[in-house]
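User: Sequence in, structure out. Go.
Assistant: Echoing your sequence, followed by the structure tokens.
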Amino acid sequence: MVGMVDAAGPGRRFPKTEAKKARQRAFLELVEQGLTYTAAAKALGIHITTYERWRREEQAFRTQVDALRASQMDRREDLSPADWDGTFASARKIFFGYDTYWHQREIIYAIERAQPGEVVLILTPPETGKTSLLEDKMCLDLGQNPNKRITYVSESQIRTRKIAGRLQRRMTDGVVYPDFIKRFGPFYMPGQERRGKPWAADCFTVYGSDHDERDYSFEGRGWRSAVAGTRTDEMLIDDVQSLRSLNLTADILERLRQDFFSRPGRNGRICIVMTRVGNNDVPEQLWETGIVTEANTVRLPMVDEQGKSLCPEMWPDEDLVAKRLLVGEAAWFRNYMQQPRLAGNATFTEAMIEGCWDLRARGESELLNRVMMVDPALTGGCAIGVAAYDAERYQMLDFEYRFNMARVEEILVVLERFAEMYKPQDLVVETNAFQRGLGNDERLLAISRR
């Protein structure tokens, strides 16, 4: 492709990204004028798949388009089923009366883009309406595809029964939800249980389905509950852990792996939506075991880099300032920013750790004793640090934390670089799983000799 020459000098070209940004701005202007996505793409001379790729690859563009369409719908008071444009946000507004804000749109997008066989982890702050959002999604999914099979997993069976009851009410209450039932129903007919379509507290099958009677349209389970042997197309795991069950991380993960993760078939997908509850929680172990990678993790913090609310419609900036003061720094970073920090429940407090750092001394220190430390991991986070110390002081000199190193050789490269730079006398290695063999690795012994 021949590039455009900039008048500033021969051979200088406009970056292709500038042309793409100009087309995206034009696309947003057309959507703002009321054109559909397909019509806007056609007016710009691009294929609709180009727009879909922009949405898939660029979060900022996706957020702008969704916010624009949502604001157009919010201004209208005469919405009817005929106004449904095929998107989740418009269906939710028309049939259930709820707006879909930034965090919620990103949750739905992450679920919809999950590939068959994938496990997707979505980390979101509390009080953003994620459970109600999932209820709406399950209702609309079963309305559009009665043969879909959904398994919903939560921390307790009591909670899943509440969710099942809400879904059933949406599907049967013709006074509160007449448009939804008329457009997608009927979901339940008296006597359908005798025809192999149950309508119980833990599971139910919608009237319009024609899949195997052993498979439910919806099945709700707590992580401790017995699991039926049916297949599922989509498993939604919602807040499976709280602070009071933080010490049960190993038990929860083992049960999920043994009884739940095997339920989706080859084309099924698993989406875990939850809030971080502390160090060594379920998300951390999902990364450590390699079940979930960084590529399959979606983090939705409450504020941006400037401390501004990412969802001001739900949480204005001034409310978040008060909330941060109320919950404290440890809970703020853990729950609202998805970044657990060492707090009072850790061996060392954050203040103690911060007091050890002196980056001005990087590579240099008057302290002669040096120690290098490594907590190696290939699929989770690999932590490597170097410190200097004497009988009275401890000084952190350098630290790296990397995710998903593919080979032991990559860890050794970082260790060798740190060893050459800081000349430590000792190496401390955490010995779990394969790490026990690292201490006897001939390549590491060679680094030690050098």
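User: And one key feature?
Assistant: The radius of gyration is 26 Å.
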